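#lab-general

N.A. 3:47 PM
ok so I finally got the sequence cleaned up, no stray characters, all 277 residues accounted for. can someone with queue access submit it? mine expired

B.Y. 3:52 PM
send it over

N.A. 3:53 PM
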Amino acid sequence: MIHTAHLFAELDKHLISLLKSLTPEDWEKPTVAGVWKVRDIAAHLLDGNIRVISMYRDGHFTAPDREINGYDDLVAYLNELNAEWVKACRRVSPALLTELLESTGTQYSGIIQQQDLDADSIFSVAWAGEAVSKNWFHIAREYTEKWHHQQQIRDAVGTTASREGIMTPRLFRPLIETFLRGLPHTYRHTRAPAGTTVHISVMLHEPLEWYLVKTSTGWMIEETAAKAPEASVTLDADLAWKLFTKAIRPDEALAKAYLTGDKELAGITLNLIAVMA
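B.Y. 4:20 PM
back already:
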């Protein structure tokens, strides 16, 4: 289990502090999130808060206006919902966006804290290949959404001493650990003998390490390995979060990653996408 519920309020505190420090020019800067500017990402974060409050506090659910017959249909539907909201929010001032994020963020964090982590979530983590997920995993996925969108803003406006706040082991490790829960699904078609091991290292202030191990029933993410790995991949922290959220392509990451051993086996890691895309 990955514990993230206690981190939402802290993450939001960093976000509000960041947004209040932005200049009017900062709000209009482009980001790695495609056509979205800084203000659009802030609006998207607000959408997430409002959806959770509406569903969990008020029991208000909006059914899709079309049939959802698979992952691609779901992604297309969510992308359209996101685009509609962001477009409408362009008439909202940065100051009001910040105020709304601050007030709804407090309610959002409280709702997250109230959830039974062992219960089944109303949403599955589809990018990890799950049809049903436990609340702890869904909440961890929500944490990665809030973290990486905030980091997209930080990346766009530049890192100064006052804006480096969330690239820390305390806040970054749960992000990557959650992302890597999608690796067994990424490797699901990769054949290898039981016991085959891939070492994954993400370099922040010090290495953050995990092992992907082939078992008789599939691939599993572990924190230790029983033997030396057949393959290894090392990624810089900034490269890792951008790669796994589709901000850069696997072929771009390959030029910056460090692969050893069976490089073909290790390179499959670069295909992990831990967002709905």
